[in-house]
Amino acid sequence: MSDTATLESFRLADSFLPVGTYTVSYGLEQFIQDDRVEDAADLEALLVTYLRHQVGPAELVALRAAHAAATEGDLDAICEADRRLSAVTLAAEFRESAQRSGDRLLSLQTDLRDEPVLDRYAERVAADGSPGNYAVVLGVATGLADVDVRDACLLCCHGFVTGLLGAAQRLLSLGHTDAQRILDDLRSVMAEAVDDSEDRTIDQMTPFAPLVDVVAAEHERAERRLFAS
């Protein structure tokens, strides 16, 4: 990639990016409240499940489709991937969180970039013609910035994992060293998730983590919550 594309990928992967992902735990809060996740080993096992059974076969497939469609200027294909991702995401909180963070990223990108595809996509989202999921917006943003699609997928995985590790530090007695150790251990799993998504079409999005969906549904009804999801 060019230096400009590489720097753009760094910016999009930075926790400094103001898209609100620090407010979500994607069910982790409820896993901890139910004593299903009690230490670093439990947390790592849960993150492996997320990457292999949700992020890889769903978010990354949608990201790839949006990335390809953005480079071709195909707005309909972007929106089709967007709608499909929402359709296969069972947990209401997960859909809402993905759309909220996606809306913020899309707003930021349209402010920073003069790209007709971004503007038309933002108009479609504003008119409720497309959900505006974070993974899809990220695919569009990286595609238009000439970020390689594999790097974009790895960026998505890295952002997801670091976001949940940040949540875990607020919910568990998880130190920075343990967080970095988990992040290091998950490198190969992230690469596997990216590989798994490579040959899937949007009709082959098959996330399957039933316990995650059940726990997420419990979190929606929790009386006290630190995180939005």
TrEMBL record:
InterPro entries named in the record: UreF (IPR002639), UreF_sf (IPR038277)
Does the keyword field hold Metal-binding?
no
**Pfam family membership, one:** UreF
What keywords is this UniProt entry annotated with?
Chaperone, Nickel insertion
Gene3D superfamilies per UniProt: Urease accessory protein UreF
Whether Amino-acid biosynthesis counts among this entry's keywords is no
For this entry, the protein name equals Urease accessory protein UreF
Q: What is the species of this protein? A: Haloarcula mannanilytica
